[in-house]
Amino acid sequence: MMARGKDPAALIGLAVETIRVELQPALSPEKRYAAAMAANALEIAMRAVAVEDEAIDLELLDAFYEDGDGTMRQLARDIRSGKVSEASHPDLRRRLRAHLVAELKIRNPRFLASRGVKA
Prior knowledge:
- This protein has one domain.
- The two termini are 21 Å apart.
- Helix 2 (29-61) runs antiparallel to helix 4.
- By secondary structure, it is mostly helical.
- The chain has helices spanning 8-23, 29-61, 72-81, 92-107, 109-114.
- The protein is elongated, with a radius of gyration of 19 Å.
- It is built from five helices and no strands.
């Protein structure tokens, strides 16, 4: 989904790799189990984030395209070209704002809080 910086799943994956490759082997045997549990929990979270990201995009795309035919890249092109506009879709601005807020709830809830938007 994301072309902006590191996506959350990739960041979690990096944390998991760091735990498993660098930290876990250096821990005492009794602490290795705790590190493995933490890595497993992060992997579960990574999968959940990936699914949530996809669901956020699909919710927006379903408003403009039939049967999952659209992509975020296509929507951006269609908005720039005028194929999708407020004239053709009066709720365009509201839907784009809702999509942005949903993404920020995951990626930067402090930004939303600084603007008075509850995450």
